[in-house]
Amino acid sequence: MAKDQIQEACKNCSEEINSFCSILCEHPEVQKSCITFKKGQLLFHEDTNPKGVYCINSGKIKIYKTSLDAKEHIISIVGTGALIGFAPIIAEGTHEISAKALEECHVCFISRKDFLKVLQTSPELKLKLLKEACKRNGGIIESLFNIAVRPVKDRLAVCLLMLKEVYNNSNTASPVEINLTREEISSIVGTSAETVVRLLKEMERDNLIQITGRKILITNEAKLFKIGKIY
Amino acid sequence: MAKDQIQEACKNCSEEINSFCSILCEHPEVQKSCITFKKGQLLFHEDTNPKGVYCINSGKIKIYKTSLDAKEHIISIVGTGALIGFAPIIAEGTHEISAKALEECHVCFISRKDFLKVLQTSPELKLKLLKEACKRNGGIIESLFNIAVRPVKDRLAVCLLMLKEVYNNSNTASPVEINLTREEISSIVGTSAETVVRLLKEMERDNLIQITGRKILITNEAKLFKIGKIY
DNA sequence: CGCAGCCTTGAGCAGTATCAAAGTCGGTGG
DNA sequence: CCACCGACTTTGATACTGCTCAAGGCTGCG
User: Fold this and answer.
1) CA dist., res. A142 & res. A136, Å (int)
2) Distance between the alpha carbon (CA) of B37 and the C1' atom of C4, Å
3) Which of A96, A230, B1, B199 sits at a 20 to 30 Å CA gap from A84?
Protein backbone atom coordinates (compact mmCIF):
# COMPACT_ATOMS: atom_id res chain seq x y z
CA MET A 1 0.00 0.00 0.00
CA ALA A 2 2.81 2.31 0.80
CA LYS A 3 4.19 1.30 -2.54
CA ASP A 4 0.98 2.22 -4.31
CA GLN A 5 1.01 5.60 -2.69
CA ILE A 6 4.48 6.19 -3.92
CA GLN A 7 3.71 5.15 -7.44
CA GLU A 8 0.72 7.37 -7.61
CA ALA A 9 2.50 10.34 -6.19
CA CYS A 10 5.21 9.93 -8.72
CA LYS A 11 3.04 9.90 -11.75
CA ASN A 12 2.24 13.52 -11.13
CA CYS A 13 5.75 14.60 -11.37
CA SER A 14 5.86 14.32 -15.11
CA GLU A 15 2.54 15.93 -15.56
CA GLU A 16 3.46 19.55 -15.65
CA ILE A 17 5.24 19.89 -18.92
CA ASN A 18 8.61 21.53 -18.82
CA SER A 19 8.86 21.43 -15.05
CA PHE A 20 12.17 20.51 -13.52
CA CYS A 21 10.77 17.20 -12.56
CA SER A 22 9.49 16.32 -15.99
CA ILE A 23 12.74 17.32 -17.65
CA LEU A 24 14.72 15.21 -15.23
CA CYS A 25 12.39 12.28 -14.90
CA GLU A 26 11.60 11.89 -18.56
CA HIS A 27 15.25 11.56 -19.39
CA PRO A 28 15.95 8.00 -20.48
CA GLU A 29 19.08 7.61 -18.41
CA VAL A 30 17.62 8.87 -15.18
CA GLN A 31 16.77 6.41 -12.48
CA LYS A 32 14.48 8.35 -10.20
CA SER A 33 13.22 7.12 -6.90
CA CYS A 34 10.12 8.32 -5.19
CA ILE A 35 10.42 8.87 -1.49
CA THR A 36 7.94 9.73 1.21
CA PHE A 37 9.22 11.90 4.02
CA LYS A 38 7.26 12.01 7.23
CA LYS A 39 6.72 15.22 9.13
CA GLY A 40 9.97 16.27 10.74
CA GLN A 41 12.20 14.10 8.60
CA LEU A 42 15.34 15.59 7.18
CA LEU A 43 15.95 15.61 3.42
CA PHE A 44 19.49 16.82 3.89
CA HIS A 45 21.57 18.72 6.38
CA GLU A 46 23.86 21.71 5.94
CA ASP A 47 27.57 21.01 5.55
CA THR A 48 27.00 17.56 4.15
CA ASN A 49 27.89 16.45 0.66
CA PRO A 50 25.02 16.64 -1.78
CA LYS A 51 23.82 13.22 -2.84
CA GLY A 52 21.33 14.37 -5.40
CA VAL A 53 18.42 16.67 -6.10
CA TYR A 54 14.89 16.55 -4.76
CA CYS A 55 11.80 17.42 -6.70
CA ILE A 56 8.81 18.07 -4.51
CA ASN A 57 5.56 16.47 -5.52
CA SER A 58 3.46 17.26 -2.52
CA GLY A 59 3.91 18.64 0.97
CA LYS A 60 5.79 21.59 2.37
CA ILE A 61 9.46 21.67 3.14
CA LYS A 62 11.32 24.19 5.21
CA ILE A 63 14.71 25.39 4.10
CA TYR A 64 16.77 26.65 7.01
CA LYS A 65 20.15 27.15 8.54
CA THR A 66 21.20 26.28 12.07
CA SER A 67 23.02 28.74 14.28
CA LEU A 68 25.66 27.89 16.84
CA ASP A 69 23.06 27.95 19.60
CA ALA A 70 21.22 25.24 17.67
CA LYS A 71 18.33 27.44 16.63
CA GLU A 72 16.83 26.99 13.20
CA HIS A 73 16.54 30.02 10.98
CA ILE A 74 14.11 29.47 8.17
CA ILE A 75 15.08 30.92 4.84
CA SER A 76 12.11 29.77 2.85
CA ILE A 77 9.28 27.30 2.65
CA VAL A 78 8.76 25.46 -0.58
CA GLY A 79 6.09 23.17 -1.94
CA THR A 80 4.93 21.29 -5.00
CA GLY A 81 7.08 21.73 -8.05
CA ALA A 82 10.17 23.04 -6.32
CA LEU A 83 13.55 21.55 -7.05
CA ILE A 84 16.00 21.69 -4.20
CA GLY A 85 19.53 20.61 -3.51
CA PHE A 86 21.07 21.38 -6.86
CA ALA A 87 23.12 24.46 -5.95
CA PRO A 88 25.89 22.70 -4.00
CA ILE A 89 26.19 20.05 -6.70
CA ILE A 90 26.80 22.71 -9.30
CA ALA A 91 28.93 24.91 -7.08
CA GLU A 92 30.89 21.82 -6.06
CA GLY A 93 30.52 22.42 -2.38
CA THR A 94 28.50 21.19 0.54
CA HIS A 95 24.89 21.98 1.35
CA GLU A 96 24.60 25.54 2.56
CA ILE A 97 21.25 24.85 4.11
CA SER A 98 19.13 22.09 5.59
CA ALA A 99 15.77 20.86 4.36
CA LYS A 100 13.14 19.26 6.56
CA ALA A 101 9.57 18.10 5.88
CA LEU A 102 6.94 20.23 7.62
CA GLU A 103 4.32 17.61 6.82
CA GLU A 104 4.21 14.35 4.91
CA CYS A 105 5.94 14.95 1.61
CA HIS A 106 6.28 13.01 -1.61
CA VAL A 107 9.51 13.69 -3.35
CA CYS A 108 11.37 12.45 -6.41
CA PHE A 109 15.03 11.90 -5.78
CA ILE A 110 17.52 12.01 -8.62
CA SER A 111 21.10 11.10 -7.82
CA ARG A 112 23.91 13.55 -8.28
CA LYS A 113 25.37 11.43 -11.04
CA ASP A 114 22.15 11.27 -13.02
CA PHE A 115 21.50 14.93 -12.46
CA LEU A 116 24.90 15.88 -13.81
CA LYS A 117 24.39 13.57 -16.76
CA VAL A 118 21.20 15.38 -17.73
CA LEU A 119 22.79 18.73 -17.09
CA GLN A 120 25.56 17.89 -19.54
CA THR A 121 23.22 17.01 -22.33
CA SER A 122 20.31 19.35 -21.80
CA PRO A 123 20.82 23.01 -22.66
CA GLU A 124 17.19 23.39 -21.70
CA LEU A 125 17.82 22.29 -18.13
CA LYS A 126 20.94 24.38 -17.92
CA LEU A 127 19.08 27.50 -18.91
CA LYS A 128 16.14 26.75 -16.66
CA LEU A 129 18.39 26.22 -13.68
CA LEU A 130 20.33 29.35 -14.47
CA LYS A 131 17.13 31.32 -14.52
CA GLU A 132 15.99 29.74 -11.30
CA ALA A 133 19.29 30.48 -9.59
CA CYS A 134 19.20 34.11 -10.69
CA LYS A 135 15.68 34.54 -9.45
CA ARG A 136 16.50 32.99 -6.12
CA ASN A 137 19.40 35.32 -5.86
CA GLY A 138 17.05 38.25 -6.10
CA GLY A 139 14.76 36.69 -3.54
CA ILE A 140 17.48 36.11 -1.00
CA ILE A 141 18.83 39.62 -1.45
CA GLU A 142 15.35 40.89 -0.76
CA SER A 143 15.18 38.87 2.47
CA LEU A 144 18.64 39.95 3.48
CA PHE A 145 17.63 43.51 2.99
CA ASN A 146 14.39 43.11 4.89
CA ILE A 147 15.99 41.60 7.90
CA ALA A 148 18.75 44.18 7.88
CA VAL A 149 16.65 47.31 7.77
CA ARG A 150 13.06 46.62 8.72
CA PRO A 151 11.56 46.37 12.17
CA VAL A 152 10.12 43.06 13.28
CA LYS A 153 6.52 44.05 12.77
CA ASP A 154 7.04 44.84 9.10
CA ARG A 155 8.83 41.58 8.58
CA LEU A 156 6.05 39.68 10.28
CA ALA A 157 3.53 41.30 7.93
CA VAL A 158 5.59 40.24 4.94
CA CYS A 159 5.92 36.78 6.42
CA LEU A 160 2.19 36.32 6.86
CA LEU A 161 1.53 37.35 3.29
CA MET A 162 4.21 34.99 2.10
CA LEU A 163 2.79 32.14 4.14
CA LYS A 164 -0.66 32.78 2.78
CA GLU A 165 0.82 32.52 -0.67
CA VAL A 166 2.59 29.28 0.13
CA TYR A 167 -0.23 27.61 2.00
CA ASN A 168 -2.97 28.71 -0.32
CA ASN A 169 -2.72 26.41 -3.28
CA SER A 170 -6.46 26.11 -3.10
CA ASN A 171 -6.71 29.79 -3.85
CA THR A 172 -9.71 30.22 -1.60
CA ALA A 173 -10.20 33.70 -0.37
CA SER A 174 -8.74 33.90 3.05
CA PRO A 175 -8.73 31.40 5.92
CA VAL A 176 -5.25 30.04 5.83
CA GLU A 177 -4.25 27.44 8.31
CA ILE A 178 -0.58 27.87 8.83
CA ASN A 179 0.73 24.70 10.31
CA LEU A 180 3.69 26.26 12.01
CA THR A 181 4.49 26.81 15.65
CA ARG A 182 5.08 30.32 16.89
CA GLU A 183 8.67 29.28 17.24
CA GLU A 184 8.85 28.45 13.57
CA ILE A 185 7.20 31.68 12.54
CA SER A 186 9.71 33.52 14.68
CA SER A 187 12.53 31.74 12.94
CA ILE A 188 11.26 32.93 9.59
CA VAL A 189 10.87 36.49 10.74
CA GLY A 190 14.13 36.47 12.62
CA THR A 191 12.90 37.21 16.11
CA SER A 192 11.81 35.44 19.27
CA ALA A 193 8.63 33.43 19.69
CA GLU A 194 7.41 35.80 22.40
CA THR A 195 7.71 38.77 20.11
CA VAL A 196 5.70 36.96 17.47
CA VAL A 197 2.94 36.30 19.98
CA ARG A 198 2.82 39.92 21.03
CA LEU A 199 2.82 41.30 17.52
CA LEU A 200 0.20 38.87 16.28
CA LYS A 201 -1.99 39.92 19.15
CA GLU A 202 -1.40 43.54 18.31
CA MET A 203 -2.33 42.89 14.71
CA GLU A 204 -5.48 41.19 15.86
CA ARG A 205 -6.35 44.22 17.98
CA ASP A 206 -5.87 46.36 14.90
CA ASN A 207 -8.22 44.13 12.92
CA LEU A 208 -5.59 43.02 10.45
CA ILE A 209 -5.94 39.36 11.28
CA GLN A 210 -8.01 36.96 13.32
CA ILE A 211 -6.39 34.22 15.35
CA THR A 212 -7.87 30.87 16.31
CA GLY A 213 -5.12 28.69 17.59
CA ARG A 214 -2.77 28.19 14.69
CA LYS A 215 -5.29 29.35 12.19
CA ILE A 216 -4.57 32.88 11.11
CA LEU A 217 -7.17 34.62 9.04
CA ILE A 218 -6.03 37.66 7.15
CA THR A 219 -8.86 40.15 7.33
CA ASN A 220 -7.14 43.22 5.98
CA GLU A 221 -4.63 42.20 3.40
CA ALA A 222 -4.24 45.70 2.03
CA LYS A 223 -3.11 47.06 5.36
CA LEU A 224 -0.68 44.19 5.84
CA PHE A 225 0.79 45.03 2.46
CA LYS A 226 1.12 48.59 3.61
CA ILE A 227 2.91 47.62 6.80
CA GLY A 228 5.21 45.34 4.86
CA LYS A 229 5.70 48.18 2.38
CA ILE A 230 5.16 45.92 -0.56
CA TYR A 231 4.03 47.76 -3.61
CA MET B 1 44.81 60.11 -24.23
CA ALA B 2 41.67 59.05 -22.53
CA LYS B 3 41.20 56.85 -25.54
CA ASP B 4 44.61 55.26 -25.08
CA GLN B 5 43.88 54.53 -21.49
CA ILE B 6 40.72 52.78 -22.45
CA GLN B 7 42.36 50.74 -25.12
CA GLU B 8 45.06 49.62 -22.82
CA ALA B 9 42.73 48.75 -20.01
CA CYS B 10 40.71 46.66 -22.35
CA LYS B 11 43.48 44.52 -23.61
CA ASN B 12 43.70 42.94 -20.21
CA CYS B 13 40.22 41.69 -20.27
CA SER B 14 41.00 38.88 -22.62
CA GLU B 15 44.13 37.93 -20.85
CA GLU B 16 42.85 35.59 -18.25
CA ILE B 17 41.79 32.59 -20.23
CA ASN B 18 38.33 31.30 -19.61
CA SER B 19 37.27 34.30 -17.58
CA PHE B 20 33.83 35.71 -18.18
CA CYS B 21 35.34 38.61 -19.93
CA SER B 22 37.42 36.57 -22.29
CA ILE B 23 34.54 34.29 -23.18
CA LEU B 24 32.33 37.25 -23.92
CA CYS B 25 34.83 39.54 -25.54
CA GLU B 26 36.45 36.95 -27.76
CA HIS B 27 33.14 36.08 -29.28
CA PRO B 28 33.10 37.25 -32.89
CA GLU B 29 29.66 38.77 -32.71
CA VAL B 30 30.21 40.76 -29.56
CA GLN B 31 30.70 44.47 -29.79
CA LYS B 32 32.21 45.36 -26.48
CA SER B 33 32.81 48.87 -25.30
CA CYS B 34 35.30 49.85 -22.67
CA ILE B 35 34.13 52.43 -20.22
CA THR B 36 35.85 54.33 -17.48
CA PHE B 37 33.73 55.13 -14.44
CA LYS B 38 34.90 57.83 -12.10
CA LYS B 39 34.66 57.48 -8.35
CA GLY B 40 31.06 57.77 -7.33
CA GLN B 41 29.60 57.10 -10.75
CA LEU B 42 26.71 54.72 -11.06
CA LEU B 43 26.94 51.66 -13.30
CA PHE B 44 23.28 50.90 -12.87
CA HIS B 45 20.52 51.53 -10.40
CA GLU B 46 18.06 49.14 -8.80
CA ASP B 47 14.62 48.83 -10.35
CA THR B 48 15.88 49.85 -13.78
CA ASN B 49 15.90 47.62 -16.83
CA PRO B 50 19.22 45.91 -17.42
CA LYS B 51 20.98 47.25 -20.48
CA GLY B 52 23.83 44.81 -20.47
CA VAL B 53 26.55 43.20 -18.40
CA TYR B 54 29.69 44.73 -16.96
CA CYS B 55 33.02 43.03 -16.71
CA ILE B 56 35.35 44.70 -14.28
CA ASN B 57 38.91 45.23 -15.40
CA SER B 58 40.20 47.38 -12.62
CA GLY B 59 38.83 49.27 -9.64
CA LYS B 60 36.36 48.43 -6.90
CA ILE B 61 32.63 48.57 -7.22
CA LYS B 62 30.09 48.49 -4.46
CA ILE B 63 26.92 46.51 -4.88
CA TYR B 64 24.14 47.83 -2.70
CA LYS B 65 20.48 48.38 -2.17
CA THR B 66 18.80 51.58 -1.10
CA SER B 67 16.24 51.66 1.71
CA LEU B 68 13.22 53.92 1.90
CA ASP B 69 15.13 56.34 4.08
CA ALA B 70 17.65 56.64 1.25
CA LYS B 71 20.44 54.81 3.05
CA GLU B 72 22.70 52.53 1.08
CA HIS B 73 23.13 48.98 2.29
CA ILE B 74 26.15 47.37 0.79
CA ILE B 75 25.80 43.75 -0.15
CA SER B 76 29.23 43.19 -1.55
CA ILE B 77 32.29 44.85 -2.99
CA VAL B 78 33.72 43.43 -6.16
CA GLY B 79 36.86 44.02 -8.14
CA THR B 80 38.88 42.83 -11.12
CA GLY B 81 37.42 39.90 -12.99
CA ALA B 82 33.90 40.15 -11.67
CA LEU B 83 30.94 40.07 -13.99
CA ILE B 84 27.92 41.99 -12.80
CA GLY B 85 24.47 42.77 -14.04
CA PHE B 86 23.64 39.47 -15.66
CA ALA B 87 21.11 38.15 -13.17
CA PRO B 88 18.19 40.41 -14.07
CA ILE B 89 18.79 39.82 -17.76
CA ILE B 90 18.48 36.12 -17.25
CA ALA B 91 15.67 36.32 -14.72
CA GLU B 92 13.90 38.76 -17.03
CA GLY B 93 13.36 41.37 -14.39
CA THR B 94 14.81 44.66 -13.28
CA HIS B 95 18.05 45.22 -11.39
CA GLU B 96 17.67 44.08 -7.80
CA ILE B 97 20.65 46.10 -6.74
CA SER B 98 22.67 49.16 -7.63
CA ALA B 99 26.35 49.32 -8.57
CA LYS B 100 28.58 52.31 -8.02
CA ALA B 101 32.30 52.86 -8.54
CA LEU B 102 34.23 53.27 -5.30
CA GLU B 103 37.24 54.49 -7.24
CA GLU B 104 38.13 54.94 -10.88
CA CYS B 105 37.12 51.77 -12.67
CA HIS B 106 37.72 50.33 -16.09
CA VAL B 107 34.91 48.18 -17.26
CA CYS B 108 33.92 46.27 -20.38
CA PHE B 109 30.31 46.70 -21.25
CA ILE B 110 28.50 44.09 -23.33
CA SER B 111 24.97 44.86 -24.38
CA ARG B 112 22.07 42.73 -23.33
CA LYS B 113 21.49 41.63 -26.89
CA ASP B 114 25.07 40.53 -27.44
CA PHE B 115 25.17 38.85 -24.07
CA LEU B 116 22.07 36.82 -24.82
CA LYS B 117 23.47 35.92 -28.23
CA VAL B 118 26.57 34.44 -26.64
CA LEU B 119 24.53 32.76 -23.96
CA GLN B 120 22.47 31.01 -26.63
CA THR B 121 25.46 29.60 -28.40
CA SER B 122 27.89 28.92 -25.58
CA PRO B 123 27.20 26.01 -23.28
CA GLU B 124 30.45 26.94 -21.63
CA LEU B 125 29.18 30.36 -20.63
CA LYS B 126 25.86 28.92 -19.54
CA LEU B 127 27.55 26.49 -17.22
CA LYS B 128 29.98 29.05 -15.89
CA LEU B 129 27.20 31.48 -15.12
CA LEU B 130 25.15 28.77 -13.50
CA LYS B 131 28.05 27.90 -11.28
CA GLU B 132 28.62 31.53 -10.45
CA ALA B 133 24.96 32.07 -9.62
CA CYS B 134 24.89 29.03 -7.35
CA LYS B 135 27.99 30.17 -5.53
CA ARG B 136 26.62 33.64 -5.03
CA ASN B 137 23.49 32.11 -3.67
CA GLY B 138 25.52 30.44 -0.99
CA GLY B 139 27.33 33.66 -0.26
CA ILE B 140 24.20 35.73 0.11
CA ILE B 141 22.59 33.13 2.34
CA GLU B 142 25.66 33.30 4.51
CA SER B 143 25.34 37.10 4.78
CA LEU B 144 21.65 36.86 5.47
CA PHE B 145 22.34 34.47 8.23
CA ASN B 146 25.10 36.58 9.69
CA ILE B 147 23.04 39.69 9.85
CA ALA B 148 20.07 37.83 11.28
CA VAL B 149 21.80 36.13 14.16
CA ARG B 150 25.13 37.69 14.97
CA PRO B 151 25.82 40.76 17.04
CA VAL B 152 27.33 43.80 15.37
CA LYS B 153 30.83 43.21 16.67
CA ASP B 154 31.06 39.78 15.12
CA ARG B 155 29.82 41.12 11.83
CA LEU B 156 32.34 43.92 11.89
CA ALA B 157 35.11 41.40 12.42
CA VAL B 158 33.93 39.41 9.43
CA CYS B 159 33.66 42.61 7.44
CA LEU B 160 37.23 43.67 8.18
CA LEU B 161 38.56 40.31 7.11
CA MET B 162 36.48 40.45 3.98
CA LEU B 163 37.73 43.94 3.18
CA LYS B 164 41.29 42.87 3.69
CA GLU B 165 40.67 40.10 1.21
CA VAL B 166 39.14 42.46 -1.32
CA TYR B 167 41.62 45.28 -0.97
CA ASN B 168 44.66 43.10 -0.80
CA ASN B 169 45.33 42.04 -4.33
CA SER B 170 48.94 42.81 -3.67
CA ASN B 171 48.96 40.07 -1.08
CA THR B 172 51.30 41.99 1.17
CA ALA B 173 51.12 40.96 4.75
CA SER B 174 48.92 43.40 6.52
CA PRO B 175 48.55 47.16 6.16
CA VAL B 176 45.34 47.47 4.24
CA GLU B 177 44.10 50.88 3.35
CA ILE B 178 40.38 50.60 3.17
CA ASN B 179 39.11 53.51 1.19
CA LEU B 180 35.69 53.61 2.75
CA THR B 181 34.06 56.08 5.06
CA ARG B 182 32.83 54.91 8.41
CA GLU B 183 29.39 55.37 6.99
CA GLU B 184 30.15 52.93 4.21
CA ILE B 185 31.61 50.38 6.56
CA SER B 186 28.50 50.68 8.67
CA SER B 187 26.35 50.03 5.65
CA ILE B 188 28.22 46.82 4.97
CA VAL B 189 27.94 45.63 8.54
CA GLY B 190 24.36 46.76 8.85
CA THR B 191 24.68 49.22 11.72
CA SER B 192 25.22 52.93 12.33
CA ALA B 193 28.42 54.85 11.67
CA GLU B 194 28.72 55.72 15.35
CA THR B 195 28.63 52.10 16.34
CA VAL B 196 31.39 51.33 13.86
CA VAL B 197 33.55 54.05 15.39
CA ARG B 198 33.01 52.74 18.88
CA LEU B 199 33.65 49.13 17.99
CA LEU B 200 36.74 49.90 15.94
CA LYS B 201 38.08 51.80 18.90
CA GLU B 202 37.29 48.90 21.16
CA MET B 203 39.08 46.54 18.81
CA GLU B 204 42.07 48.85 18.81
CA ARG B 205 42.10 48.82 22.61
CA ASP B 206 42.08 45.02 22.47
CA ASN B 207 45.05 45.08 20.10
CA LEU B 208 43.20 43.47 17.25
CA ILE B 209 43.73 46.34 14.88
CA GLN B 210 45.53 49.64 14.56
CA ILE B 211 43.80 52.70 13.17
CA THR B 212 45.39 55.64 11.38
CA GLY B 213 42.65 57.63 9.75
CA ARG B 214 41.11 55.35 7.20
CA LYS B 215 43.99 52.96 7.28
CA ILE B 216 43.15 49.90 9.31
CA LEU B 217 45.95 47.52 10.10
CA ILE B 218 44.96 44.08 11.23
CA THR B 219 47.38 43.06 13.94
CA ASN B 220 45.70 39.96 15.25
CA GLU B 221 43.96 38.22 12.42
CA ALA B 222 43.50 35.00 14.34
CA LYS B 223 41.50 36.71 17.03
CA LEU B 224 39.37 38.50 14.48
CA PHE B 225 38.62 35.16 12.92
CA LYS B 226 37.63 33.90 16.30
CA ILE B 227 35.28 36.80 16.94
CA GLY B 228 33.75 36.34 13.52
CA LYS B 229 33.53 32.63 14.25
CA ILE B 230 34.99 31.71 10.92
CA TYR B 231 36.54 28.33 10.91
C1' DC C 1 41.04 81.31 6.45
C1' DG C 2 36.91 79.23 6.37
C1' DC C 3 34.01 75.79 4.80
C1' DA C 4 32.46 71.04 4.09
C1' DG C 5 32.67 66.59 5.03
C1' DC C 6 33.94 63.25 8.06
C1' DC C 7 35.05 61.40 12.58
C1' DT C 8 34.40 61.10 17.51
C1' DT C 9 32.06 61.22 21.90
C1' DG C 10 28.26 61.36 25.09
C1' DA C 11 23.48 60.84 26.71
C1' DG C 12 19.09 59.09 26.34
C1' DC C 13 15.90 56.01 24.39
C1' DA C 14 13.43 52.40 21.65
C1' DG C 15 12.96 47.94 20.22
C1' DT C 16 13.67 43.32 21.30
C1' DA C 17 15.68 39.55 23.68
C1' DT C 18 15.67 36.86 27.70
C1' DC C 19 13.89 34.72 31.70
C1' DA C 20 10.33 33.03 34.52
C1' DA C 21 5.81 31.61 35.42
C1' DA C 22 1.10 30.60 34.16
C1' DG C 23 -2.22 29.11 31.06
C1' DT C 24 -4.05 26.27 27.08
C1' DC C 25 -4.67 22.38 24.23
C1' DG C 26 -4.56 17.78 22.42
C1' DG C 27 -3.57 13.30 23.16
C1' DT C 28 -2.82 9.06 26.04
C1' DG C 29 -3.39 5.71 29.36
C1' DG C 30 -5.84 4.22 33.23
C1' DC D 1 -14.63 9.43 30.55
C1' DC D 2 -11.38 11.59 33.27
C1' DA D 3 -6.89 13.01 34.79
C1' DC D 4 -2.58 13.91 33.59
C1' DC D 5 1.35 14.88 30.70
C1' DG D 6 4.00 17.29 27.45
C1' DA D 7 4.35 20.58 24.09
C1' DC D 8 3.07 24.94 22.86
C1' DT D 9 1.38 29.61 23.87
C1' DT D 10 0.75 33.62 26.47
C1' DT D 11 1.95 37.25 29.72
C1' DG D 12 4.81 40.11 32.58
C1' DA D 13 9.13 41.97 34.25
C1' DT D 14 13.71 43.14 33.36
C1' DA D 15 17.92 43.97 30.86
C1' DC D 16 20.63 45.05 27.03
C1' DT D 17 22.05 46.08 22.48
C1' DG D 18 22.55 49.36 19.38
C1' DC D 19 20.16 53.57 17.35
C1' DT D 20 19.35 58.46 17.27
C1' DC D 21 20.32 62.98 18.24
C1' DA D 22 23.34 66.60 19.37
C1' DA D 23 27.57 68.79 19.84
C1' DG D 24 32.31 69.36 19.15
C1' DG D 25 36.84 68.23 16.82
C1' DC D 26 39.71 67.16 12.89
C1' DT D 27 41.37 67.45 8.05
C1' DG D 28 41.85 68.74 3.48
C1' DC D 29 40.71 71.85 0.02
C1' DG D 30 39.31 76.01 -2.41
Assistant:
1) 10
2) 24
3) A230
